[in-house]
Automatic annotation (TrEMBL):
Its cofactor is Mg(2+). GO terms for molecular function: ATP-dependent diacylglycerol kinase activity. It comes from Jiangella ureilytica. It comes from the Bacteria. Residues 1-137 form the DAGKc domain. This is Diacylglycerol kinase family lipid kinase.
Amino acid sequence: MRALVVLNPNATTTSVRTRDVLLSALSNDLDLEVAETTHRGHATELTRKARTDGVDLVVSVGGDGTVNEVVNGLLEPAPVPGEKVPDIAIIPGGSTNVLARNLGIPENSIEATGLLLDALRSGRRQSIGLGRLDDRYFTFTAGIGLDADVIQAVEAERERGRVSTVQLYIRTAIRRFFAQPERRHGVIELTADDGLPIAGLLVVIITNCTPWTYLGARPLRPTPFADLNAGLDVFGLTSLRLAPTLLHLAQLTTQRGPRGRDVVSLHDRSTLVLRAPTPQPVQVDGDYIGDRTEITLTSVPDALRIAY
């Protein structure tokens, strides 16, 4: 079986020695090619070429951003009828690894490699659905408003040399919360599956699975019923008043998720359209992708197969 390993050399939790061990283990079972990423979007470029070359499997070694780029390389441009899309495998190497953890893939990269080798030898695969925001696929989340604003600010801190940590996200989230020009009345409008518009949103988080993310070892569930084999789920807030927002943040740690008059919750939707009169920050899988006044999100069932 021909395989490409797309390796992010800046992955925060995978040492050079660990990479050597896992690559050696994989090479015993696979006709292996290894490529390190050097710039944003490089994993997509590498994966797209591998798909054209007829590779059977692409192994993502890195964090959620690397997985997202690999997925987009596998599926964009859209496969033609009869075209075989390579399977994907994930060996976690980032700070959070949301999709991998939601699938039950071990955070330890050596253990994850062992699980992958067992899947390859037994032929074990699982099909999962994805989300798509305009022309970009996402595996576990997309967002507009405060959620994406925090990610944009964290990315700016990382470009200045800061290390991505839970503490950095918490400090940045607090700072950006109080920096919002309006916390009582939102401008984002949501329409789901051609239903009636829901106006006045300040933050909208769209998920493809649950948990949405992790605060260290603690899972956060704004959409506790989201499922990789169902449509898209939505969590939104129409107010960011301090006391109710703190309550909703606490509710993220529960099995039931947030609830209250400021909360908008939708489950298993096929199409979502979000509009705003002024550009709002947007993120997919934890990467800020720019400011938009309108985005369309769609559920893509059985989009790819994962070996694990």
